[in-house]
């Protein structure tokens, strides 16, 4: 359980930006300039370049290739491309710097598809209904299609090595599959108990030996069973139970492996719980907000946590992405560039940018804090 809960000190967006800019240097310069005082009038040393500092929250690119609301966004391992899916079933891969479309995934199913991109870059996976599709990450050619759960997939993630894929579903199980053959490897039934709820989020440990998974009715009520568990990906046995009393909409394992982030609604307040996968010790980042956390994404450095705040009941103009310091000491910034509702956020593997998608049919690339 938590040792303590530290309240997040919320600053205004302007104050947060100024704080970050003060640490990082002069913010917002888009071109190289020169310090004219560094050169003598008699032709001394050349002017010293003033290196532009990225401005956190700055929108770098807006991708408008979709004709319906965005469902999922994922980055290629090299941080050069983004794959995005929409409500109509189109899965598009495009250049994250120029917005130029590279290809559309072939034979994609109709309707919303959740996406994942393998760390080796070879595969893009999509979950639609009770099916998983595997596409070539460089061409979009369909490589494999297999049926997984009869009640529909809610979440999916590649193993760190890219050879296995885990899927969570409405039937309250997590399944592990071999990517290239579709062979079933393991079923985890830790959430499949009386009073349980669908498995809505899962994340692999960086070494691939464990998974953290969570269950929730996503805004509903009635579930009473354990909602967050860490378990072994070879045996399917529980390593430990983190939370036995609260549903959790989202979980994410930090790239460093030292922390897990999970959403929790406690006493009328949304929180991001940060805790050790070894002994569950940690603390909570309190978010005093009427909206629900629906997605969590770690910075590659494991220093920041980004998350989507959105509404289950309908369009809410307050829907946005927020970033918090993983140290639990201060509010960093929020990103409100979308029209609501925001549906997904993903951090680029090089740590420089984030991609977010919303019901406004756009994917936006924006500058990460440095």
Automatic annotation (TrEMBL):
Start and end residues of each Translation initiation factor beta propellor-like domain: 198-308
InterPro entries xrefs: TIF_beta_prop-like (IPR013979), WD40/YVTN_repeat-like_dom_sf (IPR015943), WD40_PAC1 (IPR020472), WD40_repeat_CS (IPR019775), WD40_repeat_dom_sf (IPR036322), WD40_rpt (IPR001680)
Chain positions of WD repeats: 63-104, 146-187, 335-370
Superkingdom: Bacteria
Keyword 4Fe-4S set for record: no
Pfam families hit by this protein: eIF2A, WD40
Entries under PANTHER family matching the protein: TRANSCRIPTION INITIATION FACTOR TFIID, TRANSCRIPTION INITIATION FACTOR TFIID SUBUNIT 5
The name this protein goes by in its record: Translation initiation factor beta propellor-like domain-containing protein
Species per Swiss-Prot/TrEMBL record: Dictyobacter alpinus
Species lineage: Bacteria, Bacillati, Chloroflexota, Ktedonobacteria, Ktedonobacterales
């Amino acid at each position: 359980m938590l040792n303590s809960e530290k309240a997040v000190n919320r600053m205004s967006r302007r104050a947060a930006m100024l704080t970050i800019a003060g640490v990082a240097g002069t913010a917002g310069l888009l071109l190289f300039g020169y310090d004219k005082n560094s050169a003598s009038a008699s032709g001394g040393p050349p002017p010293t370049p003033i290196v532009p500092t990225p401005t956190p929250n700055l929108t770098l690119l807006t991708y408008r290739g979709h004709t319906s609301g965005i469902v999922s966004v994922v980055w290629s391992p090299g941080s050069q491309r983004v794959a995005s899916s929409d409500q109509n079933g189109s899965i598009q891969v495009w250049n994250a710097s120029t917005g130029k479309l590279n290809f559309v995934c072939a034979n994609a199913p109709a309707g919303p598809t959740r996406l994942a991109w393998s760390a080796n870059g070879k595969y893009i996976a999509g979950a639609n209904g009770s099916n998983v599709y595997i596409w070539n990450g460089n061409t979009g050619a369909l490589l494999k299609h297999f049926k997984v759960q009869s009640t529909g997939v809610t979440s999916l993630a590649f193993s760190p090595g890219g050879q296995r894929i885990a899927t969570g579903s409405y039937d309250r199980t997590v399944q592990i599959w071999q990517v290239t053959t579709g062979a079933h490897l393991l079923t985890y039934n830790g959430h499949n108990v009386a009073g349980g709820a669908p498995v809505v989020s899962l994340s692999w440990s960086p070494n691939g030996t464990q998974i953290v998974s969570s269950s929730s009715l996503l805004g509903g009520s009635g579930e009473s069973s354990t909602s967050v568990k860490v378990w072994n990906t070879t045996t399917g046995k529980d390593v430990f139970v983190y939370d036995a009393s609260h549903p959790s909409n989202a979980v994410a394992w930090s790239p460093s492996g030292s922390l897990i982030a999970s959403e929790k609604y406690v006493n009328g307040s949304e929180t991001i719980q940060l805790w050790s996968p070894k002994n569950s010790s940690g603390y909570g980042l309190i978010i005093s907000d009427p909206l629900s956390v629906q997605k969590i994404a770690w910075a590659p450095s494991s220093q920041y946590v980004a998350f989507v705040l959105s509404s289950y009941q309908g369009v809410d103009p307050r829907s946005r992405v927020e970033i918090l310091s993983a140290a639990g000491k201060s509010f960093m910034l929020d990103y409100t560039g979308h029209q609501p509702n925001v549906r997904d956020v993903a951090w680029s593997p090089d740590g420089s940018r984030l991609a977010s998608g919303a019901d406004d049919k756009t994917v936006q690339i924006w500058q990460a804090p440095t």
